[in-house]
Sequence to fold (427 residues):
Amino acid sequence: MRTTYVLFVISVFYVSVIHAAILKPGPRYGFLDLIQSVNHIVQDTIDIVFGETEDDQDLVTSYDDAILNITQLGQKYGYPVEEHSVTTDDGYVIDIHRIRHTKDVTNNLVVFLMHGFVESSDSWLLQGPGKALAYVLADNGFDVWMGNARGNKHAQKHVILDPKQKDFWEFTWEEIGLHDLPTMIDYVLNVTNKENLYFIGYSQGTTSFYVMNSLKPEYNEKIKMMFALAPVAFMSHVRSPLIKMFSPATNLLGNFLVNYDLPNTDFLTSMTDTFCSKIGFACKNMLHSIVGQDSNLLTKSLPIILGHMPTTSSTLQLVHYGQLVRSGRFCQFDFGEEKNRETYGTESPPDYNLTKVTVPNVVFFGENDWVADPADVETLISHLPHIHDSNFIKGFNHLDIIYADTANDLVYSKILKYISDLEVTTN
Ligand SMILES: *[C@@H]1O[C@H](CO)[C@@H](O)[C@H](O)[C@H]1NC(C)=O
Ligand SMILES: *[C@@H]1O[C@H](CO)[C@@H](O)[C@H](O)[C@H]1NC(C)=O
Ligand SMILES: *[C@@H]1O[C@H](CO)[C@@H](O)[C@H](O)[C@H]1NC(C)=O
Fold:
């Protein structure tokens, strides 16, 4: 009986999407918005059919938080979110977000947070007050800045290009590290009138950080300490089937997308949106196949997280990751021998020189992480010249490190301690 209803609902979902797509062609974003709105209708229908499984207040909160944007979320919980806009040297216009210390506590310190793949600044607020990293830092007196990567929902503008053009999407996380991060960091240092700041990166936010500091080593001076949450650089032990699909070893999607000139846009987003009509179990399984099993996420958090991610990204970001899985190296994009010779002067792409990343690093990584596998994180640690400390977290997968209910105890409170210890010794 229930199965029939679910099948019915899902059919309605697909029919509506396909129907609307035919009726309303045009930019893929319009299409995605549409899927998202249909998702909400599907969710409501499922609730009517199945009844509500959690208590009403929780449900109201999670629905709200799934739909509210970053400004509205901060406002709801009493943390005004400032929006600033920067333009990179190659023309991308990126909105970044800031939450200042609350109450009268200020420690006069600036922290910059950089999100992971297919995420945005939203990610740092989703667990809510007392739990989400942005709020925890603000409560402790920090001036909190949250960056965004070109192409995500807060960064779909360019001085010349249009996101509907393929050229807009010709970038990987190398460009995010070479252009977006330096622009944002310089902007933040300028506005706050500081010489350096604390950097907290998650997943791709760490990849881009290591690109920046190896190719533009002058940025080591601007970072007091780097907190690497589930860092991704070496990838030969990746267990995530989704990322493996993009590894040229299996010669599947990566080459297909690159060679056949498909728009390098939001392939993953539409895929996840299609699979995840916010029906808890299906989504959870899908997510697990990407990030690792045995999640510590609360079922309640799932709709909130999925209301905000995945956001758009360039498919080339995933292709570049796939290349690292195959090569086992942390290196620049592989265009093929001929174009490599043109671009780099060598047949194979050069490694990012991690010896140049001299900033002190504190690393956090999880036992069940299928993306930042512990063996690969150990390789990264062995290449970084200045490891301040590392923390292995039993049972955590890739998402747990920022979304688990216990992340505050196991990760954030430790970050606060490292910072206060450092401030005591340097002042
Ligand atoms: C959030 O939504 C409000 C109301 O629609 C809008 O004014 C605001 O600019 C939005 N903020 C972001 C970051 O999109
Ligand atoms: C720093 O800020 C000042 C004043 O807001 C501005 O004039 C200047 O161009 C900024 N410099 C950089 C490098 O952004
Ligand atoms: C990497 O950087 C270090 C420190 O600047 C330098 O000594 C070394 O030669 C570099 N390695 C390569 C392969 O360029």
